[in-house]
Amino acid sequence: MDEKIKKGLKKAVQHAEKGVTKSILRWKYKKEGKQIPLEDRLEDESRHVADRAHEVIVRRGKNVWNELKKAYFKRDGKRGPGE
């Protein structure tokens, strides 16, 4: 895939993530009966929440990958059953 297209796609996804996160934060504030913060603060909070979500996904993704490798390979390094 062309790098220019890749960057554009990544930027669009990040923008969408921030928008969804901001909507969820607004909903949460409303549900809790709290005043919705100013747009700049809401923007910062949504960026922080999205970044934190990425960290969690990366960490858990590594754990899942390691567990899959353990299940796939036996202790002696050969492939798992059926291979």
Describe this structure in words.
This protein has two helices and no strands. The chain is mostly helical and 83 residues long. Helix 1 crosses helix 2. It starts with a helix and ends in an 11-residue tail after the last helix.
SSE topology:
Layout: H1 3-31, H2 39-72
Taking the alpha carbons of the first and last residues, their distance comes to 33 Å
Q: What class, by secondary structure content? A: mainly alpha
Helix content: over 70%
* Radius of gyration, CA atoms, in whole angstroms: 20 Å
Main sheet: strands, sense, barrel: none
SSE order in H/E notation?
HH
Low-confidence parts, pLDDT < 50 over ≥5 residues? none
Number of helices: 2
DSSP, total strands: 0
* Outline type: flat
- Mean of residue pLDDT? 83
Could you tell me the strand content as a percent range? Answer: under 5%
